[in-house]
Amino acid sequence: MSSARLKGQSRRIVLELIVVVALVSFGTHFPSGESSAKAWSFVTHHPLVLLHVVFGTVVVGEAIVLLIRASLNRRRQWIVLSMLGLACVLIAWASGENYVATQHSSSLNNMSLAWLGAIVSYGVGWYWDHKKNKIRLVTQNESADLTPLAAAVVTKDHHSD
Length: 161
Hints:
The chain has helices at about 5-25, 35-45, 45-70, 75-100, 105-125, 150-160. The protein is mostly helical. The protein has a single domain (about 5-125), classed as Up-down Bundle (Four Helix Bundle (Hemerythrin (Met), subunit A)). α1 packs antiparallel against α3 and α4 (about 75-100) runs antiparallel to α5 (about 105-125). The radius of gyration is 24 Å and the shape is elongated.
């Protein structure tokens, strides 16, 4: 698998992580003081929270697949990146489960910090191998496809020597 495909999967995970957060950022409030069973019942009956859990689980699967693909291709930088990302995703996932069960704000904080770590990890993967388009200078002995304005500038520079 090429770096481009690993980079594409990293980009997909970043976008999925953004969707995961967007799903619960619209005023979702858990009922306080309820048992764990009632809290999980709320999760299964609230469509945005349920989609948050489903997309979070999909991200866990995607993170595992990226680590496996990086390992099979023996790409050390991708292995390290995907291990860090997977660790953050698993911490966020476990913290989310703990938050539903206990309603402790520390679990919510851990989930948020782990999510941020995952975004950074996979965002670095998205950016790796980013090549800036450089304008190649054309010498007298080379030909290039130039726009008419660029051709005029190059011609003028060659005649002024």
